[in-house]
Amino acid sequence: MNRNCQRSFHLPYLLWISTFLGLATSTFGQSLETNALKYDTYRMRLLQGFVRVGPQPGESLVAGIRNYGYTGSHDIDYGDQTIYQGWYIGVLATEYARLRKQEQPTSTTLSELYYALQAVNRLDLAGEQLIQAWDAKAELNGYLVREDVPVAFFENPSVQGSAHPHFGWPEVKKVRAIAQHPAEAERRLNNEMSQDQVYHLLIGLALTRRFLPDSMVNISLLDGQTEGVNLQKTAQEIALRIGMRLRENRWIIRNPIGKKVKRGPNCKPYSYALAEAVEYITDQSVQNGFSRVSKLVWQSLRNVGSAAFANKDNRHMALAVGAVGDAWRAKKETPRNQKKAGLVIARLSKAEGWQGFYPLLWAVIHDRELPDVLSVTEENLDNAPVNGPYWYSPDQQSGKGWGCSHRYYHHLEDQMGLRPNGDFYAFSGYYSGVDYLLLYNLWWLQTQR
Prior knowledge:
- It is a single chain.
- The protein is mostly helical.
- It has a domain at 296-372.
- Helix content is 45%, strand content 6%.
- It has 17 helices and eight strands.
- It has helices spanning 13-23, 32-49, 81-101, 107-125, 127-130, 185-188, 195-211, 231-248, 271-282, 289-293, 295-300, 313-325, 335-350, 358-366, 374-383, 412-415, 434-447, and strands at residues 65-66, 75-77, 174-176, 217-220, 226-229, 390-393, 396-397, 429-431.
- Strands 3-2-1-8-6-7 form a six-stranded mixed β-sheet, with no helix packed on it. A two-stranded antiparallel ribbon has the order 4-5.
- The longest helix is centred in the first third of the chain and has 21 residues, at 81-101.
- The radius of gyration is 21 Å and the shape is globular.
């Protein structure tokens, strides 16, 4: 799918493919070198099958699932795109930090990050037109749509990401997206932003704030030009627009004509942590009286048995925004209290098998002491399939928790490709692997601290 953005990989092609085939029979006990090789495999796979880098509608967005639904399918799916976008931005920000420490070139990663951040701004500008074709001026105002992928995005054969010899994918012919369906106005309301999309997008913006310099960096554009851009500032501006809009609407997500969005509009229970996350990214407070009062509600989510977690989605939302905002920290900043905050995140994560990720995210962003979970992180990395995550049936899947489109917001039964009512998992296909990529970079940065 990648048009012009080229990457260099550590191994020549023949060595890479022979190593790849030799390792494909085992997903256990892999060495550090194998997980590094796996990272390069996933990055190649991401660019060739799930992301087309560029400034146009649909470009620099992440498809969560390709060859969707059944073996041999030609569909590609962009559902929950802004969640994947947040993780993709996080992958690039942490990759930049890792490559710098390794004294490796960073120009390609910086270019890719530039276009990924610009894609978020593009989704903001598109918000007024893509939902109901409102007669409103396009502006950057913190109201986003999830994706802007054209129906004909893959009609040009040069961008199809056809069956690749490394992976054996059937070519993509049909886009499963909701941005460009003018005859289906009600369906297009599903393209509005929602609170889960916001919280996971903040992960990428926070890591950009953490690892990119507060200065201009040279970006190699796809047209051959070079432009100086402050990527940290770009991420901060995106986060501040979102935070200010939510605060002005009393922590309810409203569309440009003032109506609540169709899905997930109510950020009030999370408003204290959300404001803390925005303040970390932007260095500007967006707290108000309501969000400060809601701190009492937020603190109740420290408890593993909180009634809020009867809805399982509340758990990953709380963990995402809580880790980014360090929102469970005590008023008095002592090493003991900092450790307690990490233990809260670890306990809440464990119920869904996420303890290898969210405590690590919190520790790396805020330079905190990591709870004793690194062995879980390493087990997750070792168990990730060498040829990338996928699920088509209980007998044809990645296994070991990688049988879903995103390990760290899908629940345990989803990670295994199961539903409570049986063994059919509707969202089957090949998955983007951004969860593995971000986990690897965070693990690497933590172990080098």
